[in-house]
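User: I need a structural model of Oxygenase MpaB family protein from Actinomadura vinacea for a docking pre-check later this week. Nothing fancy, just the predicted structure tokens so I can convert them on my end. Input:
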Amino acid sequence: MSGPTTPLGPGSLLWSYAADMRSLLPGAAAGLMQLMHPGIGAGVSQHSAFFDAPFDRIYRSVPQIWATILAPDGEQRAHGIRDLHRAIGGVDEHRRRYHALEPETYWWAHATFTWEIFKAAELFHPRTLTAEDRERLYAETVTWYSRYGVSMRPVPADHASFQSKFWHVCAKRLELTPAAARALDIARYGSETVSLMPVGGARLERAGRLVAERPLRLLTFGCLPSIVRERFDIPWSPADQVRFSALALAHRQGYRVVPTRLNHWTLRSTLRYIGSQTRSQRYQPAA
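Assistant: Understood. Predicted structure tokens for Oxygenase MpaB family protein:
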């Protein structure tokens, strides 16, 4: 695919959706699909403390990734993220070689974030995207990807092609890697040994569990493509679908009374705070 020309910024659809708190709601499902990719799952298992602190990866990564859209120096930040992946490679448990910057592997990580933006717009926003909106938003996600300065070869040309390729990877390429199996177990059953909060003491952690665990499970499994739930026997009942639909409706209606500026300020402030608290824990490649 040739270099994109669609600009980003406060006037773009991507900026508008990414700056909204609802953009993060399908994030756990996107993260799970990343871990189901053989190369990403292996890299996370071998180059991080994922099995000891699985949520830490989310708190370290999301503020940096969202800044590649929202920050004025987004392109420079994207180059920094790319460079952190240069040393991530090896051999997985099936003796297959992998590298984080292999074009299809790196694209899949971004594809899940592209999917996340579209999924948030579809489920949690009252306005329906038109066909023109979808093409415009997709073109902007291609510009977003180009900021990393990696191969554009895997990038589908338009939104329909993206949907087709995304479905194909979900149906044929994803697998239950050890990292994905661990994440699924936590989503299904919870874990008293895993911290959900980036900072805070035991009392805050207990409160976080009471408030977050059930909705997080519902959001994670409800947002997943049905083909992924079916392939990996992820439990999802008609009652779950009713509860999930009600949760989505609550977000569509509830955010109507939240001023847009407050919504955007809350997201930026939350990401800045989490970023500041986790900066010292970010991945550093070996010398």
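Before docking, keep this in mind: Strands lie at 89-91, 97-99.
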